Amino acid sequence: MGFNCGIVGLPNVGKSTLFNALTSTQAAEAANYPFCTIEPNAGRVGVPDDRLWRLSEIGQSARTVPTQLEFVDIAGLVRGASQGEGLGNQFLAHIREVDAVLHVLRCFEGEVTHVEGSVDPVRDAETVETELMLADMESLERRVQAAMKRARGGDREAKAELELMEHVLTALRDGRPARALAKDLGDQRGALDALFLLTSKPVLYVCNVDEGSAAAGNEHSRRVDALAAEQGAESVVISADIEAQVAQLQDAEEKAEFLESLGLTEPGLNKIIRAGYHLLGLITFFTVGPKEARAWTVRSGATAPEAAGVIHTDFQRGFIKAETVGYDTFVDLGGEQACKDAGRMRQEGKDYTVQDGDIFHFRFNV
């Protein structure tokens, strides 16, 4: 599994159209009225990576298995959602379960009804962010009371947790999301994550533009780019309508020709994945053999045993060593045996830090 992201946004911004296109399904009903998504829909897609197919070819693998990306389409939020407006805050809980928030913003004009009556993506972003901050404040205010009681009883962990929660509450009351504090927390970053706050999730803004603006964006998307840069977030420009059309094409060459006719070099999905990987600090490693070539995802900075654990917990528990070689070396020399013959296959231990594109064979004993 690569990572999962919750698709959020106001009603009628193109969330469900995008979800359907990205997952090549019609699991989420797209319609020109609010709240057509009344249950969170989840869909997984293979992460496109040309390296995997090259490795599979060299290794003459019977199967090729990409790493997976999961999208969760969450019902449209509206102003007042944290207080029960629209479909209420029942959907906010779904956001707590994802790794990142994929915030779709309407950056196109047209006849589709906008819940706020006009197109203003920055305003829309602030509306959703405010609702998430209000929900976090309500959650923390309840938990602070319980932590205060435990802290008075001498519970050191409760005292540390209370200090952190009060620090976050101050920021939220000042209009700053919890993720804005992450860089300053240092060793306490893990404690912040443990609070499972909605606004601690990293954000990827997806500017949904008209077809004519898909290649270069427009004035609306440029405003969002500036907002993302200010927040340290990521932003991408796509057209959900184009993605829907691409999803209906089965032939790869036909897809490429269609995209080229619109001045595009790749589907929007690729841009979303790259931005998401960068946002979350993810990298890819590979395993290659005659039975299977497979891509795997780990956090940047992961050790060899942690990478082994992504494949199976027994691999991490009984880790002995990792035989590894970089992607470029593997391809240049023409495969595993050639790398061994050239003395380029390395033996790495428990302290080895995984590099993007590493190809592994793990040795373990349980």
Q: Distance between termini?
A: 24 Å
Element pattern in H and E:
EHEHEEHEHHHHEHEHHHEEHHEHHEE
How can the largest sheet be summarized? 6 strands, mixed
Helix content: 40-55%
Strand order across the biggest sheet? 2-4-1-5-6-7
**How large, in whole angstroms, is the Cα Rg?**
23 Å
Low-confidence stretches: 32-38
Record keyword descriptors for this entry.
366 residues, alpha/beta, six-stranded mixed sheet, three-stranded mixed sheet, 19% strand, flat
Could you characterize what this model shows?
The chain is of the alpha/beta class and about 375 residues long. The chain is about 40% helix and about 20% strand. The protein is built from 15 helices and 12 strands. The protein has helices at about 15-25, 50-60, 90-95, 120-150, 155-175, 180-185, 190-195, 220-230, 240-245, 250-260, 270-280, 305-310, 315, 325-335, 335-340, and strands at about 5-10, 40-45, 65, 70-75, 100-105, 205-210, 235-240, 280-290, 290-300, 320-325, 345-350, 360-365. The strands form 3 sheets. It has a 6-stranded mixed sheet with strand order 2-4-1-5-6-7, sandwiched between helices. A 3-stranded mixed sheet has the order 3-9-8, sandwiched between helices. The protein has a 3-stranded antiparallel sheet with strand order 11-10-12. The protein is flat. The model is unreliable at about 30-40 (pLDDT under 50).
